[in-house]
Amino acid sequence: MASGVGGIAFLREHEAVAPVAWSWWMLISDSARVVAEAAKNGNGFVVAPVMRNLMTHAVAMAWLVDGGDAAVQAVDAYSDDQLLKLITNAKRAGWDVEGDEVEVKVRAAVDERTAHPDLEVVRLTNEIRNTVDHMAAFGEQEGYLPYRHLSSYSHTTRATAQLYLHPTRAGGWELRNKPRESGLNDVIWTAVCLIQAGRILDSILGEQLLAEELDQATAHVGVSGDIVPRRRPRRGAAN
Questions:
Q1: 153, 163 in Cβ contact below 8 A?
Q2: Beta strand pairing status for 173-175 and 165-167?
Q3: By C-alpha distance, which of 127, 149, 126, 147 is closest to 137?
Q4: CA-to-CA distance for 172 and 12, rounded, in angstroms?
């Protein structure tokens, strides 16, 4: 049986995660397009934050489908925590947000979760707070390495400080108006993440509409085997 969401048919057992999965799939698809176009124009490192976001959301899609409705609730819980932090920052900055309706609603939701905690939702919420733990839970330790590397291009580091510079033989710097090129790494990882997310989305559709195109893309990239992130057995979990 399949359930229609926005004209797209999803398997009924996945209807709880279908809207979020679709939104993340579209974000990944659009992000991949931005990265590919930027890399083609020699600006791969400029969109490093987009690439990092793409990588985490590809794993998050696997996490979402694996966790089901509890994962959807965990997204809400984590989002509420982040919103309360933003409101706190706004108050410290002198903004007049006291008694805001959004804050009242969010605090009520947080208080309800605290009073009646769902342990699975709590576990999943904690899991998505930390990228390295989140990716490791789905066997993506190797995938975390390029994510960590791209962090250097997302913060105020030597990587960005020298991105538009070229060392001279005299020990100085030549100023440039184009960044250092990232090569094919971004393009390859973008393709891998897009394939991963596509496989996950296809697995919850009423019909596997993407399978043939994904098979072709996988063969073209030259990757073999099952590259979809899958949760590793938890310590102490029953066999």
A1: yes
A2: antiparallel
A3: 127
A4: 63
pLDDT digit string (tens) for 159-192?
999 999 999 999 999 999 999 888 777 778 889 9
Question: Do 11 and 2 touch, CB atoms closer than 8 A?
Answer: yes
User: 1 falls in which pLDDT band (50, 70, 90)?
Assistant: very low
Contact 133, 59 (CB under 8 A): no
Whether the Cβ atoms of residue 221 and residue 213 lie closer than 8 Å to each other: no
- CB contact at 8 A, 210 and 198: yes
- 189, 55 Cβ separation under 8 angstroms: yes
3 state SS for 181-193: CCCCHHHHHHHHH
What φ, ψ does residue 136 adopt, rounded to 5°? -65, -35
How much is the pLDDT for 152? 92
Tell which residue, 184, 178, 153, 148, has the closest CA to residue 166. 178
Task: Give residue 194's pLDDT band: very low, low, confident or very high (50, 70, 90).
Answer: very high
Token pair of 130 as six digits: 């930390």
Q: Which residues of 75-111 are buried (b: 16+ CB within 10 A; e: fewer)?
A: bebbebeebeeebeeeeeeeeeeeeeeebeebeeeee
pLDDT digits (tens, 9 = 90+) for 72-109: 999 999 999 999 999 999 989 999 877 778 889 999 99
